[in-house]
Amino acid sequence: MKRLLPLLLLLMLAACSHHRHEDKQIFRYNESAGIATLDPAFAKDQSIIWPCRQLYNGLVQLDTAMQVQPSLAKRWTVSDDGLTYTFTLRDDVRFHNGRRVVADDFEYSFGRIIDPSVASPGAWIFSGVESFKALDDTTFSIRLKAPFAPFLSQLSMVYCSVVPREEVERYGKDFRKHPCGTGPFHFQYWKEGVKLVLRKNEDYFERDEQGSPMPYLDAVAVTFIIDRQTVFLEFVKGNLDFMNSLDASYKDEILTLDGKLKEKYASRIDMESTPYLNTEYLGFNMEDADSPLRDKRIRQAINCGFDRRKMMRYLRNNIGTPGVNGFVPVGLGSTTKGYEYNPEQAKRLLAEAGYTDGKGLPRLKLSTTSNYLDLCKYIQQQLGLLGMDIQVDVNPPAALREQIAQGKSSWFRGSWIADYPDAENYLSLFYSPNRAPAGPNYTRFLSKKYDRLYTEARSCTDPARREMLYHTMDSLVMDEAPVVVLYYDQILHFTHKNVHGLRTDAMNTLDLRRVKIDKK
Predict the structure, then answer these.
(1) What is the structure's pLDDT at 511?
(2) The pLDDT of residue 22
(3) Does domain 276-490 have CATH number 3.10.105.10?
(4) Long-range pairs for 430-434 at CB < 8 Å and ≥24 separation?
């Protein structure tokens, strides 16, 4: 019976495709991870963020250059002390239920995010907010406890979307499957694990540069095929319009070693690529008193003991940039010097630590998940040439996350995808008050000097000074080496030749407002 399931699924998809309305523009993509909710208060990962981006709007939004632009707020002012933000709202925006949006709706929506009974994972956004208030129907004010330069970028997150109180109260916890926002598409149908359909919002407020109403699409249809090879086949056959990224199981089928589309696909498929604000790394638990990894020289030896450039070429088809700079990704313009491959320097560091040629160094356990086993095996082999005995321990993702949060792993694989496009978001991982399990400082890094720099940078309103502080902090992290930067990820978007207008940015936003699909 198990062998029949993929075939039955393909037949179902083929039937759905056969009954499509050929005169309609329907954008089809697959979400292998499934969608847990359509409530923006719980938009904590990409699978939820993508559909919520179609359903909701906030005060501001980011353009493809990661600059803050108006959305429901048509303009704003910031007080001279950097504490008070006053937003003037559009007066022509309606929720999908027909009611006009007013400032009180933002006061309600933000209050809901910080309500402990709601338990939104986005509540941290408002930890530095002293108050927020609707001054009248079109004026909304936010006051911060201290200046925070990236605050506007934070407000672009899906968590900060506006929702109508009456619909949330009507459905309660079931608002997750009865979403109502202001976005370019409205909710139509959702059979969990099977299909989600969003329909064009005919009353959407935004227009394109020529003054034409958006969106151009009639609908968005999301399927939930779990097997990634099946997803790839469905895309190649034309049953999906879009595919995000590549799975290791078929990357060599579609890409050359240099990361280019193979000739047999190039005539049918377009590939867009851009740096992704995602740093893939290995982290050390700096509080593990029994681990030899407490010695900075050993951490530095690991950092320069393997060839990242060769790793990227042969294991990643050059999808991404070798992590030879700082922890802040190159997509944010980082110029921090990191570690290049230097086996002789690695040997010297090991000898200085008392482990010449690795002799006497206890076995080191590196915890990872199956998706990154090939990279960890490569590092294991390269460090083995230096005499280091590395054990690669494979864990289920949830189990590894728990180990890391509880400090039970001395060396682990991690990644950090930006919540908002500012270096501060990455550098927060090394601020000591953010130490796990309460915060994202999973390495338990502690430096009073770093904390002073971080505190100053958060409230610095001078962009040049703030960039200098960011660079100093990133350099300090590289010297202390609580992490091994593996690579800075890269976004790959694949579409068929008849799909136009899909924009790609460093946050991997799915923006469907300007997408058009030509008839085949």
Answers:
(1) 97
(2) 64
(3) yes
(4) 430/327, 430/454, 430/473, 430/477, 430/482
